[in-house]
Amino acid sequence: MEKGVLSAAAMRSALFSQLPATETSRLLAASMPRQFQPGQVLFHQGDTSEYLYQIVAGLVRITQINSEGEQITLRIMRPGDLCCVAAFRQPSYPATATAIEDTTVLAWRVGSFVALTQQSPAIADNVVCIAGDRTREMLQRATEMTGKCIAQRIAASLLRLSAQAGTATADGIHIESPVTRVDLASMAGLTYFTVSRTLSAWQKQGLVRSGRHRLTILDMARISEIAEPRPARG
Hints:
4-stranded antiparallel sheet; Jelly Rolls; Crp/Fnr family transcriptional regulator; DNA binding; Env_Response_Regulators; Arc Repressor Mutant, subunit A; DNA-binding transcription factor activity; 2 domains; 8 helices
């Protein structure tokens, strides 16, 4: 990716949102472009936090080994996402980041990035907003795990996955390989079998179209309704 195209793509992200030209130039000047092939790891859970990465092109799967030793998918990072903002003030990465397709990033050494936020309130504000959004997302997921039924959890996770890795078409929202049903099951905190059974039922109802390497949401309104049912009228 050419430098000009790379910079233009990066500046469409939340990190660069409404920054003055001087701060934008300083951020770009301090960054290093990097390329990752599918399967390459950007960082491992527990590694010392050395870099922050801005996804410019491609997709990155964020996974974590939980207390039971199981690998869970936390989210799919798309272009525009700052990965991993949780490492900004932590000595080690709390999760593993793996490219799942050809991926281009901008990388900043953590120390240099911290210095930039200290020098620029505008950059610091954007980082705080990004961290706040991620915190709200994780709290929402925790609520879903404990307060929603199976169908609601799958629908909510499907909506989240469609926002992170979906492509809008005339038929609906396509979610294609390398994003998998295993990712969906992991994000919903359910077994692969439970998710597959539910998707099969939804396919018969015309809500989704499920294939070996593709899942299409055909009725986004109905899936949204399942995820967040409207209160019954008295």
